[in-house]
Fold these 2 entries.
Entry 1:
Amino acid sequence: MAYAPKRRIHPLAFVPLVAALSVAAPAAAEDRCTDDGTVCWTRARGAAFVPGKRTTRRDRRRRGRRSPGTLSVNIVGGRGSVFLNGRYVGTAPLSAVTVPNGRNEIEIRDGMVVLASGRLSMPSGGVITLTVRAPAAVPTMP
Amino acid sequence: METAPGVRLPAIAVAVALALPGPARAEPTVTPQTMAGTRSTVQAAAKAELDAGDAKTAAERLETAARQLGDPVLFLDAADAQYAAAESERTTGPLDRADELVRIALDILYFLQGPMASDTWRPVDSFEIPTLVARANDFLQRSQALRAEIEAEAAAPPEDEEPKKRAGPKILIGVGAGLTALGVAGLGVGVAGLALGAVQQNKADDPTVYGAAYDEVERKGKVGNALAYAGLAAGAVLGAVGIALIVVGKKRAGRQREQAARLRIVPTGTGLSIAGRF
């Protein structure tokens, strides 16, 4: 059997590895879209958008107990106003709108046409950006 | 004084509960009545500015309040103020803004009729919504009409600007006639030159003419030739230009006669007729 000397790794070689592991990784942004591609969202720190979902009375009661998150809305190929929890918050493009933590209801509409609606789950400090494509808007108003 | 242990624990619990941050304060409930109160203050201030002829400032005040409150009525009022600004300035910029404000008002009005509307945010009464929607749609139509009017004004040349001066048909015909006359004269000179040349050629062919007499004939012949060439060339050019000017002048005169409205009594005597191209 051939002689194979044992290689020892110098302890200082671990320093960069330990340093890299100890640095907190930035919150990774995640991109998702609805099946028809009309609404896409980029979320970070646990924020989530569930298209078509409504909130319950319990959700409304539990909303806003901790620090809020932020919402941005962009509309591609059109315009629209944003309504959060039954109130007008502005007309797109919107950025850094304060959203209470918990489950919220959002609707984006251009006149009679609802461009997007759903439930916005916002953890403390959550960040979400919705991008709506106007041409494929779904008319739902009577 | 010593506190009983049975009292101390609940007291600690209350103290801890008070020390903890409470839930975020709920947003205030908005009713048509509360909104009407806030709205009237803004409207009064804007009215004073509108009466003073400052439609732009009034529009900005109304729009700022409308965006803060989300009030469709103030959005419509802001659009009306922008319309007034467009009317006085005769520009379409304020109309673009006004149209967007009206669209926001429509967004809110349709939202208030939808399932996601909240009971705690009712800026207008439900029975007011159809009237406000009609007001918004009527505004969009009026805005479109004013836009077309302003754009037509911008496209048309200003009335005080003098129309591009074009030579009148009479001037063209006069100048043409003059040039034609000069051309005829030139041709006449040319023919005279030819005649002179021909006469001098005959003399030169005479064998009895020689010496100084022949030189004189030759000189006159050359003069005749020069007159013939210059006269014919100048006459042809002047005549052609003159005739062209006369033709153009005649055509313009004919067009003006066609465009002029003619008022005459109908031969049957039953009334007046007006004829022409408009």
Entry 2:
Amino acid sequence: MSDSTAGSDVPPPAVPEERGDFAGLVPAPIAGPFRKSWAWFDDRTGITGLLYKGLYEAVPKRGGWAYTLGSATLVVIIVQFFTGIFLLLDYVPSVTQAYGSLLYLRTDDLFGDWIRGIHLWGAYTLMLLIGVHALRTFISASYKKPRELNWISGVMLFFLVLAMAITGAMLPWDQASYWTAVVVTNIPHYLPVIGNGVRALWRGGDFVGPLTLTRTFALHIWVLPALLLGLIGGHLYLLRRHGEFGSWVNYRTTTDDPEKEIAERIRHAEPPYPTRGSEPRYSVPSETVDFFPDQLFKDTVVSLVLVIFIFVMALISGAPLDGPANAATLTYVPTPEWFYLPLDQLLVFFPTELIGFGVFVVVGIGATLMLALPFIDRNPERHPIRRPDVLVPAFFFIGTVIYLAMLGVNRLYNL
Amino acid sequence: MSMGRVSRRQFLVRGTGAMAGLITAMLSVPAVGLLLSPLWAANKEIWVTVQGGPIDDIPEGLPTARIAAVPLGFGPPAPAVNRVVYVTKYQGQLYAFCNICSHMQCDVHWEPSLSLFECPCHGGLYAITGRNVGGPPPQPLSQWVHRVYVDAQGKHYLQIANRLQEQI
């Protein structure tokens, strides 16, 4: 049992009777008068098999509410794509017209500011959601073999979303957006050797100008979303390949003979379990349910609550629009969005000679530690109590980030 | 050397690779060129007169913010952008400071209570000569490339170019 990959020599599980037909799955009109058309379509596409594979995937039974965070993240990202496309109907990516187009949305279009509000509150929600999703994954040690790349692709998605947020914040070309553009596009200039060149490429010259806006716009609506969609595809593929890990509660043994109990679980595992390449003990959850409808119902409840929150916040709070961009101001105090406060506070701490070190080395080490977590944490334990060697440093890291943010709030808003 | 030793399979594999490489190269040259063009675009020097009239009345030792509409030297047509010129007379010297902080390029202002230039973002401080006296900024406050123009009445006007004396 010891080191061999679990699940070899296991016969494929039979399809349980209650899922044998698709009456509940295929909408009634298709099952009824359109049955023949459906059969024709299925014959050409294999859609039924795909739906079956997609929907009747086994997921761990216990802790299902905690496993809704990933799908909620996906739903909010879809909300961002959706509202982003609608903003494109009216937004003009030009230094002379961008502000006016958003002012038009605000004052003359009944729904314009609402859509902008959803896009903004969607972004805020997404930040928090990704944080909680990552925290959940971290605490449950779901990144351990063979799910290292699930974690790494997730961290890369987080970085991409941060990049989406910062490029998006530069587009309205109001004061907040202009000064965000100035500060953010200036940061690459602290790179050794190529710094000034990178800044000139992004800005389209030495100063922030028309090309800064169009280039950032291109990043925000095409380059980053394309990368994002690709990585999401990979992230989901890996999730489906290895199955949802769940958490330690799914792998407890209750009998006197754990070896036998685990072997029994592996024998009765449903796809995608037993997880290939996993320790046998953690290759099959003790109890599973079908993704559809059990898990999907919970996923939908959480997504609904979040979308209601975004929808209502967009309606009552909307999205701010400062005065138009003014490079000649003497009184404007540029402030970062709240999720960039920790990084902004770091800038205060690094003196003259260490700015580049602070921006690239310190932040780079933080980012590398996040990416490399599955390789740093060699502890085979899954229960958080028995993993103090990673949990204590990680919570110190998280605490530092929160403390930096609080210092930033204190400095900028004089609380 | 001996072409005869290239098998049909090798020919197909290498041929496919070579053709894909050619397609990539054809698309990359203009695309990367467009991306990099700001690096070699010639920045045309344009001079403008600082607004607000002659600078004769600006008091010694008090940096005074004036506006200049500075056009970009290259890129798509765009209106000139209003920029701050801190006209500063101090110990017989005339300075034409740009109010861009050398740290993260926020908007520096003259703070009378400190008698220093102060940046609101991360607390950078500069003396009246632009010298660094506090906070993280790595370089002094930069000046616009400038010159003084005297009109027929003997009044002095400040003119600036659309670039800074030192890159920040």
